Amino acid sequence: MKKSLLFASAIALLLASQAFAGSDKRSSHPSVNAASEDKTPPSYDMKPQSLLDLQDMHKKMVSLAAAIPAEKFTWRPEPGVRSISELFLHVSGANYGYPPLISGTTPVPGFKAEGFETSTTDKAKIIEQLNQSFSYAEAAIQSMSNADFAKPEKKLGPDANDGDVIYLMIVHNHEHLGQTIAYARLNGVTPPWTEEAQRKAKADKDAAAPKRD
């Protein structure tokens, strides 16, 4: 999929303002020999893969939010940087904001991006928003056919399609999952899935240890 800086910038601007302004300009790309272009079919369907990936991040993000003490939700690494609560709400807001970029996808009723990230520091409400936003994004993917991923979205750029929107949403979640892990560890919280893996490894080691008479 061809991408341009214009396309990526337009996506970010739309999510911030909820108002997209189209453009016909494109960034230049290096010329590619047509004979060298990959003509082979995709090795897997993007729909099930993206859904599986998003569901995994849903589980991890919510479990991490649950593991962080409520009093730490206002913690931020330094002034001017998102706090823990703002980071989780940023993720939620993006999950609400990406799917409506796909023609025919209904936005979440009543959702307003402006002020959303600072709307609450309440742990329970933030976890609720995470769950609702991921469920909304997952439902949007479920409603798509495999063919829909190649459907053009010319309002986003001359080479844009619906698969691009889903791809960018997945990438955005991966980026901020890493950030939330760093925030958690800076506050002495080990990711729950890491703790589970460590417990399993210890149990397996104990089970394999020679038994004394």
How would you describe this structure to a colleague?
By secondary structure, the protein is mainly α. The protein is 52% helix and 0% strand. The chain is built from 6 helices and no strands. α3 (84-97) packs parallel to α4 (123-142). The longest helix is centred in the C-terminal third of the chain and has 25 residues, at 162-186. The protein is globular and about 70 Å long. Residues 1-7 and 16-32 have low confidence and may be disordered.
Principal-axis shape: globular
**Which stretches are low in confidence, meaning pLDDT under 50 for 5 or more residues running?**
1-7, 16-32
Taking all Cα atoms into account, the compactness measure Rg is 21 Å
Sheet with most strands? none
Order of helices and strands: HHHHHH
Strand content: under 5%
Question: How many DSSP H or I helices?
Answer: 6
Q: Roughly what is the average pLDDT, rounded to an integer?
A: 86
Number of strands: 0
Decide which structural class fits the backbone. Answer: mainly alpha
Q: Calculate the terminal CA-CA distance, rounded to whole Å.
A: 64 Å
Share of residues in helices: 40-55%
Entry keywords:
globular, mainly alpha, 6 helices, 213 residues, single chain
Would you spell out the secondary-structure blueprint of this structure?
Elements: H1 5-17, H2 46-67, H3 84-97, H4 123-142, H5 162-186, H6 192-208
Helix pairs in contact: 2-4, 2-5, 3-4, 3-5
Task: Give a short summary of the structure.
The chain has helices spanning about 5-15, 45-65, 85-95, 125-140, 160-185, 190-210.
